[in-house]
Write a structure and sequence with these properties.
It holds the Pfam family MR_MLE_C. Belongs to the mandelate racemase/muconate lactonizing enzyme family. InterPro entries: Dipeptide_epimerase (IPR034603), Enolase-like_C_sf (IPR036849), Enolase-like_N (IPR029017), Enolase_C-like (IPR029065), Mandelate_racemase_C (IPR013342), Mandelate_racemase_N_dom (IPR013341). GO terms for molecular function: metal ion binding; racemase and epimerase activity, acting on amino acids and derivatives. By secondary structure, the chain is an alpha/beta fold. It has 2 domains: 138 residues, 2-Layer Sandwich (Enolase-like, domain 1), CATH 3.30.390; 243 residues, Enolase-like C-terminal domain (TIM Barrel, Alpha-Beta Barrel), CATH 3.20.20.120. 41% of the residues lie in helices and 24% in strands. It is built from 13 helices and 19 strands. Strand 10, helix 9 and strand 11 form a beta-alpha-beta unit. It is globular and about 65 Å long. The chain starts with 10 loop residues before the first helix and ends with a strand.
Length: 386
């Protein structure tokens, strides 16, 4: 078994790309539908269940890797039928191709599933391949990504609900040990303020992240910050306050939020490519970039992480609405790199069922990653394993 001392930072994954030959025996994609405990409403959509795609890749050496392609309306380009079709084509491609280096396989996937239009499926396939390779060399993913940490702490999200429902959730999460609450806003400014007041009563010591999901105009976003300031509330982060293409609005909110209120602004929907990240950094359009594997792919995310770290811009890691399969991979990456100031990997907690066996250990807001190789998981399917 390879030890952590042989796995420095990203170089370990980079080395494997030029040294590990991938020979795929079987590969499949299947629908992964899991109900939510309660409807999940944000500024631009509402979900009752996660309707994602699971990817399973088995190498000829018998090692199985798992990935998840989440589908979120108005955020991912793919819907579930499109994602299933793309996954089937990609899996067929993997099986039919001769053995090739990991880097070559991943490059082929980038060409086969290009850009933002197939980013979620590409991420799912990349996850499965990297998981299988990590299992082949007996290394947990968090060590493969650098081994900086084996534990992370996540916030938890309160969707758009009534003030009384928000207060009830805040009290519940307080008892469970969550110290940072991410509040979905952006649908109605006055209602958002009332919800914030209710949460403040129920969980007076919590830190706030506001996530508008593109829901405000620039003026509305600044107005929210002013009203919170008058309440004595300073969010630790204001995520995607304006429409993804409103670059000038994003610049304005970022400047006012930081200079007047001491609040950092994160670009989420506005950052869907390396080019977007370069634009944000060069134009000082945001203080933080939110990394999501499903909007960038794994390799695309690593490129933006490297760019951001070199530029000194803050990093957040988040997800769509994934099971512990997708959340786990992102968590391994976050722990291994150890460079994220904000961690938003909570959606598996919001699901009514857990189809994943094994994986990270959960204790309230803390996720601990074990020494099991790869993710150390398999997917339960109708009472059995897939």
């Amino acid at each position: 078994m390879t030890t952590s001392t042989a796995m420095p930072s990203l170089n370990s994954l980079q080395t494997l790309q030029t040294s590990f030959s991938v020979d795929v025996a079987t590969a499949h994609g299947r629908a992964l539908n899991v109900p939510l405990l309660a409807p999940f409403t944000i500024a631009n959509s509402k979900l009752d269940s996660a309707r994602n795609v699971a990817i399973r890749v088995e190498l000829v050496n018998g090692c199985v890797g798992w990935g998840e392609a989440p589908v979120l309306p108005f955020v991912t380009a793919e819907d579930q039928p499109t994602a299933l079709a793309a996954a089937a084509d990609a899996c067929q491609f993997l099986v039919q191709n001769p053995p090739m280096l990991l880097g070559s396989v991943l490059a082929e996937m980038s060409r086969f599933l290009p850009g933002h239009g197939f980013a979620s499926v590409r991420a799912g396939v990349e996850m499965a391949l990297i998981d299988a390779v990590a299992k082949s060399i007996g290394v947990p993913l968090w060590r493969l990504f650098g081994g900086a940490l084996d534990t992370i702490t996540t916030n938890i999200t309160i969707p758009i609900v009534s003030p009384s429902e928000a207060a009830e959730l805040a009290a519940k999460y307080y008892k469970q040990g969550f110290s940072t609450l991410k509040l979905k806003v952006g649908k109605n400014l006055e209602s958002d303020i009332e919800v914030l007041k209710a949460i403040r009563v129920a969980h007076p010591t919590c830190a706030f992240i506001l996530d508008a999901n593109e829901g405000y105009t620039a003026n509305e976003a600044v107005e929210v910050l002013e009203k919170l300031h008058l309440m004595g509330v300073t969010p630790v982060l204001f995520e995607q306050p304006v429409h993804r293409d409103d670059w000038e609005g994003l610049r304005h909110v970022t400047h006012v939020a930081k200079e007047k209120y001491g609040v950092s602004v994160a670009a989420d929907e506005s950052c869907r490519s390396l080019q977007d990240a370069q634009k944000i950094i060069q134009g000082n359009l945001a203080n933080v970039i939110n990394i999501k594997l499903a909007k960038l792919g794994v390799l695309g995310a690593l490129d933006i992480i490297e760019l951001s770290r070199n530029a000194g811009i803050g990093l957040m890691i988040g997800g769509m609405v994934e099971t512990r399969l997708g959340m786990g991979f992102a968590g391994h990456l976050a722990a291994g790199l150890g460079c994220f100031s904000f961690i938003d990997l909570d959606t598996a907690i919001l699901l009514a069922d857990d189809p994943v066996v094994g994986g990270y250990e959960v204790s309230g807001a803390n996720y601990k990653f074990t020494e099991a190789s790869g993710q150390g998981v398999f997917l339960r399917w109708d009472g059995g394993s897939w």
